[in-house]
């Protein structure tokens, strides 16, 4: 059905809201973190006001510190500041982070997406390039990907080109041999433009379009390149 261009060697996929609907997962992770903190504050008789967590986060993000591209590091930094009124606050902050991360990777990947990846991995090397902190190795789609890139260890988040530059170096390919696919025109489209690669917009969970149709259209777009 599809005739893919043999000159394209690698597909880079965004994860959140491209390969699964991330909204319910984030809500569950946030609730788990909040519930843990509320219990910890209550146990020490300290007033709990979770709005301050978001105020601290907003202030830190406004610093434009590249280290905060790593969302796990950002969250831990916010939690440590938020938990300062508590005894053993840093330990509690780390445990609250663990509560968040435990839920963060419990994503529900639709069989249609799995089928699409199963098809594409026969023709291309697949990697994931995500700004988020879902541990893809805990998901059902982990085997499809040869490598996974996240803004950790000093790596910058999309649309900064660092992750895709590293990808090209790792697989010894040029930008013309790579296609990046994701739901954010600003971040995913931006990073592709930054390295001179092609970009395909894929946001199957942001519209009423049938998921199977969205996957079919993506494969058709790949075929036309």
UniProtKB/TrEMBL annotation:
UniProt cross-references to InterPro entries, sorted A to Z: HAD-like_hydrolase, HAD-like_sf, HAD_sf
GO MF term set: hydrolase activity
Pfam families in alphabetical order: Hydrolase
Keyword Metal-binding: no
Keywords of this entry: Hydrolase, Magnesium
Name assigned to this protein: HAD family hydrolase
């Amino acid at each position: 059905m599809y005739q893919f261009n043999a000159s394209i060697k690698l597909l880079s996929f965004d994860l959140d809201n491209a390969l699964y609907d991330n909204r319910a997962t984030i809500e569950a992770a946030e609730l788990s973190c909040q519930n843990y903190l509320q219990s910890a504050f209550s146990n020490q008789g300290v007033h709990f006001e979770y709005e301050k967590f978001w105020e601290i986060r907003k202030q830190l993000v406004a610093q434009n510190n590249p280290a905060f591209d790593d969302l796990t590091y950002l969250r831990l930094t916010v939690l440590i500041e938020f938990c300062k009124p508590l005894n053993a606050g840093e330990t509690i902050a780390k445990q609250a982070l663990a509560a968040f991360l435990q839920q963060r990777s419990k994503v529900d990947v639709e069989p249609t997406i799995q089928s699409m990846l199963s098809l594409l991995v026969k023709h291309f090397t697949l990697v994931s390039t995500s700004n988020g902190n879902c541990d893809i190795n805990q998901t059902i789609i982990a085997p499809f990907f040869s490598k996974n890139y996240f803004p950790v260890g000093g790596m910058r988040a999309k649309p900064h080109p660092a992750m895709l530059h590293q990808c090209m170096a790792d697989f010894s390919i040029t930008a013309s041999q790579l296609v990046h696919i994701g739901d954010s025109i600003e971040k995913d489209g931006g990073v592709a433009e930054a390295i001179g690669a092609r970009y395909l917009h894929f946001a199957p969970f942001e519209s009423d379009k049938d998921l199977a149709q969205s996957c079919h259209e993506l494969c058709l777009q790949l075929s036309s390149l």
